[in-house]
Amino acid sequence: MSSWIIDPYIRYAIPTSEVVCRDLLELSRQLGCTAQGQEYEEAGERRFFVKHIVNITAAFSLVTYIYDYMKDIMRYLCVALLCMCSLAAYAQQEDIEITDKNDGTTYSVEFTDSGLIRKVVVDSEDGKSKFKLPKELDKYKWSKIKDGLWTTMKEPDEGFKTTFEGSRKFNVHYSGYLYENGEKFDSSLDRNEPLVGTYDRLIKGFSLGMANMAAGDFAAFKIAPEMGYGDKDLGVIPPGSTLVFYIYKIDEPGAAF
To answer: Which CA distances in Å does 157 have to 29, 154, 206?
Structure first.
């Protein structure tokens, strides 16, 4: 239990020990009751002395209170700093090098400090290919394929394709990020396992982006919600998210499964 001392010389209500308060008040009452005649002045001096003891106790309690309060603040600041350092360490993904188990192709991927793909080197039996992108998403030069879909590829003379054949097969490596904050949510490169399937099994933006790529091409695609997952809440992908996919097209057999 604690009590409060309110002193006219200190503009704070200071929590202090109930035992100390009780003893000081009892001493004051005893001094007041026994002071008679010539002893009044002596008792008054004692009361004055007790008053200063109270003030000193209050001041000490104030200092202790402030000290404890500052310790709590420093503790919270240290926890926040550790969290920020952990998030920064997570965001700074290390460069990777993987080798395809099927054809022996080696993929070397360099990342920016924020975790975006910066450079890709593909070393296959057909030779070595290098692809490089700016460090920041807002520095990308986007070309519009269709409403809701953009790419870093240059538009061909005949223009981009705006349709795709759903039964066609594909074989690609990819990494997906949220455009708003650059956070990665999925990557076949991290698993060292290419994505295979047919075009009709994917979101429209991804499929239409691949339809404009040839085997051996690498590009980034910005996909608006209407060409992506729309308002679906997929956990790592919030509703209404604009996405960025990095895609390397390994090959495209062409026939349906």
So the answer is: 102, 9, 22
